[in-house]
Task: inverse folding
C-alpha cells in the first residue's frame, strides 16, 4: 500500500457516517522516544520479592569456536529456528536483587560501571537499573556470587575500583575461591582467556582487600537461598534454590548460556565452559530435574526478565517465559 | 535445607581461605520493593519507534462458556501445558504508541482511567505507563482504534468522561463505526453483553461529540500503518501492518485473545468472538501467513511486551516472544 494518508482518509471519508477530519495544524510536537525502559521486573516467591535487574546485553558476530563442538552454520540454524538474527549472538546478563527477611541480597553483579562507560551503556547497566528500581547499593546487606567470570564479579567494583556495595558481606563459592585465588592453579592455567580470568579475579578481590566469605554447597547463603553445586562451567560454579512458603525458583546461573542455543542443544559446549563434559552432564541433569519438577527457573543469560519454565523439545529443552505481570 | 544462615556461614568458614564475616550491625535498612516497573518497552521497525505500553492485565476464575466450544478441563489442560496457573485466566492488554514521521500515533487505548481506579490499578494502566515512557497524551496526533470493545475504546476518555487525547484525530474502522452506531443493529442485538457493547460505544463516542474519522481497509491510516480487514472477532475488526524500510510487524489486535489458549488452539472460540466461525477462519489464515512469512507480530492480548514470532505447534500455533533488548 503506497497510498498517502490523505488519500486513505478521503477513501475513509467516502464510506463514513460522520467524517470530521481534524485540522493538521492542531497536531502537536512529537515527544522523543529514544530511551529504553529501565529494565527491571519484580515477582514474588512466597514472601520474597525478586527483582530481576538487567545488566544489559552484548551482541557480537559469532566468534570462531563460540561453540567448540558445533559449526557456525549449525549456530545459524539454531538462531533462525528461534527467530533471532543470523550471524550474531546476543548474550543478556541478569543479576537479581532479593528482598528477603528484611535484608537486601544481590545475586551476581554484572560487568560494572567501568564496562557501562566503555560499552556506551550496552552492558554494566545493573547500577542504573537498580537505582531506577529504588535500590541504593550502599544499603545492600549481602552479595552472593555464583562464579568468578567477569560478567558476574566485575560489578563488585565501581568505575574507579572502589567497593560498589560498601556495606555488604560478599559471599563467594568456597571451591571457586580456592581454585581461582590459588597461585599454583594460575601458573598452570593456559595463556589467553584463562590467564585473564585469574588476573581479573585478583584485580577485583584485591580491591576489596580480599574481604569475602566463602560459602559451601548444600547450605543457605541467605534466608531460603540454598547454594547448589552445578560445576563444569567453572570448578566452583553454583546455582541456587530460592524457597519461601510453597513457592520456589531455581536460579540456574550459567548452567546454560543463551538458551536458544544451549538449552535447545544441551550437548553444545560454549567457549566459556571450563570443563565442557562436566558442564554438559550438569546441564542435562539440572534441565531434566526442572522438567520433571516443573520448577520455575531464572537464567542469568536468558533474555530479560529471565524467568520461566523448561519443557522438553526434541533432543533438547526450551524455555517458556513466564507471563509478565504488570502489577505486583 | 533448614540450616540457619549462621550455621551455613560457619560451615563455609571452615572451608574458607580467608573468612572475614562482616558484622551484622553494618547491615542497613532494606528499601521497599513493592511496585512493579512501569511496563513499557521500545523497539524499532525501520525508522519507526514502537513503544508497547501495557494497560495492565486482568485475572479471573475461568467463566462458564469462556471458550464456547471447549470445556473448563480442556482450558485447564492448555493452561498447564503453558505453565500458567490453573482455574483462572489472565488477559493482558497492550496498546501501542508509534513515533512515526514526526507524529505520535496511539493504537488502541486500553480500559481508561476510570477502570484504573475501579480495578485498583490492575487495568487502565495505559495513562500511567505512557507518562512513565515520556508521552504526553495531549500531544498525541492520532489515535487508531482496531475495534469497538471496551478494553480498546474506553481509554479514549478520562475518568470524568473528557477526551483523553484532546488534540488527536480519532480514526475508527468504517465498518465497525457503521455497525455499532446503527440504532437498528442495536435494537436487534441480544440482551446482555452485546447490548452493553452498543451502549458503551454510545457513551464513549457521544462524549467525543462523535468526532471521529472512519477509515477503510487496504489504506494507510498513518505513514506506513496499513489497515487490514481481519473480521470475525467483531464485524469491523481490524489489524495493521506497520512497515518502514525493509522491516515490518503485523499488529494482530484480537485475532487471538490469550495466545496460550487461542493460538495453541485456533479452533477454540472465545466468548468475545462475535462471529465465531469467521473469527476462526481469519485466525487460521492470518497465523498461516505469519508462519509462512516469518513475520514479526504484536498481539494486544499477548503477555507484555507482546511482540514475537509464530511457529506451527501441532495442530495450532505458538508465540515465540522476541528477546528483550535492554537498550534501543
Result:
Amino acid at each position: 500500500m503506497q497510498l498517502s494518508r490523505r488519500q486513505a482518509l478521503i477513501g475513509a471519508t467516502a464510506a463514513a457516517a460522520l467524517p470530521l477530519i481534524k485540522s493538521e495544524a492542531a497536531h502537536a510536537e512529537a515527544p522523543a522516544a529514544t530511551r529504553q525502559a529501565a529494565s527491571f521486573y519484580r515477582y514474588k516467591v512466597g514472601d520474597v520479592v525478586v527483582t530481576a535487574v538487567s545488566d544489559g546485553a552484548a551482541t557480537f558476530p559469532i566468534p570462531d569456536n563460540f561453540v567448540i563442538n558445533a559449526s557456525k552454520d549449525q549456530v545459524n540454524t539454531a538462531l533462525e529456528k528461534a527467530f533471532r538474527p543470523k550471524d550474531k549472538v546476543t548474550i543478556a546478563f541478569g543479576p537479581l536483587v532479593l528482598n528477603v527477611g528484611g535484608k537486601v541480597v544481590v545475586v551476581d553483579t554484572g560487568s560494572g560501571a567501568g564496562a557501562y562507560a566503555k560499552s556506551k551503556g550496552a552492558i554494566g547497566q545493573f547500577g542504573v537499573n537498580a537505582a531506577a528500581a529504588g535500590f541504593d547499593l550502599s544499603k545492600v546487606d549481602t552479595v552472593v556470587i555464583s562464579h568468578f567470570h567477569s560478567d558476574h564479579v566485575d560489578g563488585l567494583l565501581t568505575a574507579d575500583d572502589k567497593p560498589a556495595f560498601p556495606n555488604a558481606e560478599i559471599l563467594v563459592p568456597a571451591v571457586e575461591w580456592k581454585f581461582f585465588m590459588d597461585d599454583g592453579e594460575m601458573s598452570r592455567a593456559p595463556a589467553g582467556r584463562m590467564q585473564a580470568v585469574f588476573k581479573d579475579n585478583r584485580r577485583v578481590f584485591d580491591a576489596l582487600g580480599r574481604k569475602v566469605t566463602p560459602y559451601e554447597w548444600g547450605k543457605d547463603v541467605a534466608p531460603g537461598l540454598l547454594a547448589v553445586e552445578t560445576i563444569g562451567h567453572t570448578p566452583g560454579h553454583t546455582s541456587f534454590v530460592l524457597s519461601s512458603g510453597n513457592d520456589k525458583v531455581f536460579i540456574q546461573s550459567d548452567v546454560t548460556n543463551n538458551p536458544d542455543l544451549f538449552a535447545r542443544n544441551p550437548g553444545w559446549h560454549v567457549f566459556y565452559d571450563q570443563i565442557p563434559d562436566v558442564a554438559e552432564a550438569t546441564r542435562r541433569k539440572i534441565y531434566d530435574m526442572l522438567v520433571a519438577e516443573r520448577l520455575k527457573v531464572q537464567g542469568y543469560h536468558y533474555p530479560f526478565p529471565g524467568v520461566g519454565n523448561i519443557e522438553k523439545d526434541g533432543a533438547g529443552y526450551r524455555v517458556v517465559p513466564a507471563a509478565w505481570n504488570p502489577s505486583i
User: Anything to note?
Assistant: Chain B touches chain A through 104 residues (CB under 8 Å).
